[in-house]
Amino acid sequence: MDIVLGTTKRKMIDIPEEVLRRLSVKAARRGMDLKKYIEGLLARDAADMTTDMDDEEAYRWLSSNDPEGLVPADEKEQERFRKWLEL
């Protein structure tokens, strides 16, 4: 999954040497430089806003921020669905 990033901001962080070494190995296995690998990890984590939410909280967040699927089907679409189900 590719994450498209807009403007960026520079932030200096401290990473334990052992963690840095392991991340470097993982990045190398994927043929990536460490910086791009870490940026990708952070972007994917930030993109999945529902990871640490229970089902109710995730549904509430998705309903207000990503409402796809919450629009009721019109009568024509409902009829096609009934025919597809052979009702």
UniProtKB/TrEMBL annotation:
Protein name, per record: Uncharacterized protein
Origin superkingdom: Bacteria
